[in-house]
Write a structure and sequence with these properties.
This is histidine kinase. The protein is an alpha+beta fold. It is built from 13 helices and ten strands. It has two domains: about 10-90; about 155-435 and about 465-475 and about 500-515, Heat Shock Protein 90 (2-Layer Sandwich), CATH 3.30.565. The protein is about 55% helix and about 10% strand. The strands form three sheets. Strands 2-4-5-7-6 form a five-stranded mixed β-sheet.
């Protein structure tokens, strides 16, 4: 074959081979590109799958957390409901148990207020809030109780003041009747008048103690008065005193008196202590009274053989007699026993001291201590009343008293008719044989008392000075006329006889006009 015949197929073959190679390369390139695309898509698919897996995992976690939260929420709701039930039960316990117990505790301190019912609340906010409620409730009840009690005491003070005024007017009318019908022809009438006078005196004392316990004053005023006269006047204010009280034993060695500002208060306090002693004594032993001078003033000692007091009663008596604690009417019982409360007010006001303890007879010994600031030394020209006992001499045997028991009349000397009113000075000297210098000798070492130099208008004019219950009588002055002096002057024997006859008649009338009575349950303290 010619050479050209081989070249054409070779060229064609070569061209075909080139084309095949080119097609293979192009196919390879396209395949690689497609593989690259597929690989990219696979990576994206993997990434998408991983993202979806993460989202699914996060969704599952959120779902689990939500379920856990829901479970916790249900648990918390149950716990809150249980806690609410416990708080409701505790609140019901507060309303039904603790508040009523608090009311009882305010009335009677021995009642115990219970604490929280569930001890899991102890010290928590619930416990503190409930305590705050109880405290606020107690303050409100106390404030309202004090306001009501003050209003009640004001009403009682006003009522007792009016009653006391009318009773004192009645006493003046009875005193006028005693003076007007003092003759022998009016003996029966005088007995009735004396009985009414004693009843009226008891009414005045009960009205007085009730008013003083509610913050009132004694309602009476006096001049400087011998202390022993005040004790005698206090004895005369007690019912059946002539049968139930012995004394007073006068151990004073000087002319000791009480200043005018405190005279009625001391008489009232002594009368209440005596009334309490008599009320609780029902044996054969009488209530004894003694008056002593102490280093810090004077003391009135009252002993009874009554039922006595237990420890709780002694504590309450000490609290009331001190006068340092406020006293409400509701705390005095039903009916109110106002004696110790009234004494406490007077003791605190005048700086005195009243104490009670067990007596030698198993009863109660009451001691009223009077400070020196309330005492005065009475002027030499004055003398105690004829009812005052003689001082107990140091040489007398133990237990012997220089005082001869005699009946004591009502507490106001205005009840004695002028015709039988004795001269106190001669009678006083008649019963005191010892020289004044000898009796004043033992008292020289004692502290001096304040001197009072005032002279009553009655003494200056030569007439009898006006005396109230238990008061001291003054000697007549030298400035009166001769007719007045002749009417007043009398011998000691005549004065003793007249006064003794009057006392015998007065006591007989009282015993007939005042039959034995049932016990007054408001008398005790």
């Amino acid at each position: 074959m010619p050479p050209d015949s081989f070249s054409v197929p070779i060229v064609i073959a070569f061209a075909v081979l080139v084309l095949a190679l080119a097609g293979g390369v192009i196919l390879h390139m396209r395949t690689r590109r497609q593989l690259a695309q597929l690989r990219g898509q696979l990576v994206q698919a993997r990434q998408a799958q991983e993202h979806l897996t993460r989202e699914t995992s996060a969704r599952n976690q959120r779902l689990v957390q939500a379920e856990r939260q829901a479970h916790d929420g249900v648990k918390v709701m149950h716990e809150a409901r249980a806690q609410q039930d416990l708080v409701r039960a505790e609140t019901e316990h507060l309303i039904s148990k603790r508040i009523p117990a608090l009311l009882s505790h305010l009335r009677a301190p021995h009642v115990i207020v219970p604490g929280v019912q569930n001890q899991t609340f102890a010290g928590t906010d619930v416990d503190q809030q409930h305590r705050a409620i109880l405290d606020a409730f107690a303050r409100g009840v106390r404030d309202e109780g004090e306001r009501i009690d003050e209003a009640a005491q004001a009403v009682v003070r006003g009522a007792m003041s009016r009653v006391q005024t009318q009773a004192l007017r009645a006493q003046d009318l009875l005193a006028d009747l005693q003076q007007r019908y003092s003759g022998d022809e009016h003996t029966a009438l005088l007995r009735e008048v004396l009985g009414l006078d004693m009843f009226n005196e008891l009414i005045i004392r009960r009205v007085q103690v009730t008013g003083i316990a509610c913050g009132a004053t004694t309602g009476l005023s006096r001049d400087d008065t011998y202390l022993v006269d005040l004790v005698v006047g206090a004895i005369s204010r007690v019912e059946n005193f002539e049968l139930r009280i012995e004394g007073p034993a006068n151990h004073l060695r000087r002319r000791i008196g009480v200043a005018a500002r405190a005279a009625e208060s001391i008489l009232f306090t002594t009368a209440e202590l005596l009334a309490n002693a008599v009320h609780h004594s029902h044996g054969t032993l009488k209530v004894t009274v003694a008056v002593h001078e102490t280093n810090n003033g004077a003391a009135i000692v009252i002993d009874d053989a009554g039922v006595g007091l237990n420890e709780e009663q002694y504590t309450r008596a000490t609290q009331l007699l001190s006068g340092t604690h406020p006293v409400r009417l509701v705390d005095l019982g039903n009916p109110p026993r106002t004696g110790w409360a009234a004494i406490g007010r007077q003791v605190a006001h005048y700086g005195m001291q009243a104490t009670v303890k067990k007596s030698a007879f198993g009863g109660v010994q009451a001691v009223l201590s009077i400070p020196t600031a309330l005492l005065v030394e009475m002027p030499e020209h004055t003398r105690p009343s004829v009812l005052a006992p003689e001082p107990v001499r140091a040489a007398a045997p133990a237990g012997a008293a220089a005082f001869r028991p005699q009946p004591v009349t009502a507490s106001r000397s205005e009840q004695v008719p002028p015709s039988v009113r004795p001269d106190p000075a001669p009678a006083f000297h008649q019963e005191r044989p010892a020289a004044p210098e000898q009796r004043r000798a033992p008292a020289e070492d004692l502290a001096p008392l304040p001197q009072r130099r005032r002279q009553s208008p009655g003494a200056a004019s030569g007439s009898w000075p006006a005396r109230s219950s238990g008061g001291s009588g003054g000697s007549g002055g030298s400035g009166g006329s001769d007719d007045t002096a002749r009417k007043i002057l009398t011998t000691p024997e005549e004065a003793q006889k007249r006064w003794g006859d009057f006392q015998i008649g007065a006591e007989a009338g009282r015993r007939e006009a005042l039959p034995p009575q049932q016990h007054d349950f408001t008398e005790g303290n």
